[in-house]
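#struct-help
A.M.: can someone run this one for me? Single chain, 151 residues.
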Amino acid sequence: MIQRKQTLYIAIALILSFICADSHIAYFTPQDFQAGVPGTFTDTMGGFDATLPSVPLYLLPLISLPVGVAAILLFKHRFIQMVLCVVNVLLFLSWYVLAAILINNQIQANLLQPSFRFAFFIPALCIILYLLARQAISNDEQLVRSLDRIR
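D.P.: on it. Structure tokens below:
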């Protein structure tokens, strides 16, 4: 149901997921340079490699898109909706774990200083939105069960 607040939460999270998949998450600045380089750019002139392997970081938000769409479309099955919201939360938490590992490897290999962009924090917003949606779905389920008891 489009008019439910959990649908709006999930729809906003879907839009943010798409933006996150298409954005740079960090700049890496060498310790002896002042200029920053994008996280997916390789600078061979300065003698360092500032490439962040972004394919896994690109795929996880894209994997969450069909899961979120399924959560919207399965509005009659609230338990499945709650499970799909938790799956998306776990996907975005794994995105942060993977990003931390990749950034840590990049820092250690090239002695670079990261500078995070706004796109790095978009998955946190998605996690919050999916948790809010799950709570709203749970409240709906409790309301339906309480009305079933009254009958």
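A.M.: thanks! The beta strands are 26-30, 37-38, 112-116.
D.P.: also worth noting: The chain has one domain: 5-118.
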